[in-house]
Amino acid sequence: MDLELNIGTPVQLQLNLGDQVKRYASRIIGYARPHSIMLQTPSVNGKALLLREGQLATTRFMGGDSVYAFATPIIAVLLRPYPYLHVEYPKEIEKAFVRKSERISSNLPAQVESAGQSRSDITIVDLSVGGARFVGPPQLGNIGDRLQISVIVEFDQQRQRLSMTSIVRNIQPIDEVEGLASYGVQFQLGSLTEQLMIGGLIQMHSQQAA
To answer: Which of 24, 27, 28, 63 is most exposed, with the fewest beta carbons within 10 Å of its own?
Structure first.
């Protein structure tokens, strides 16, 4: 399988550091098939991360309507004329197809928080990369308001809390007796990690529904 590589594409670089898994933001700056892919060395507090040759790195990025992932060793770490590294060009690639318009039905417990209000429990009933519809108490916000939605997801076999800034696009009362309303929101995803986690969540629910 050929990779859809484009110079400047943001990537997530995952490294095992002792007993910890760390993820860093990087960017594709070049490649030479079938030898290596060149990445910017991630920085922490303005300083280039110390990496070593032979260290295994998992690289993830979005290309078109797919998420790509592969695990290969770092084969060169260079400091001049700027910090960058080479990871071995992958022989095996994981590819997950994620349509931004695809919506999947879900019954996902989550929490929502708006300005000046405490967290409220909600249920996400459908989900896409671009947004979601959830059911929750009335008066969580008005159309155009920002909400912070958080949900527990499994990513790389670890449970993590994903927090997403969202804009309310529509509100519909659905049960006045129970005091429930349906909210349609648009996600404002700020990082590649958030996009990857949402894509993984959609893929997991799609597989469960199949």
So the answer is: 63
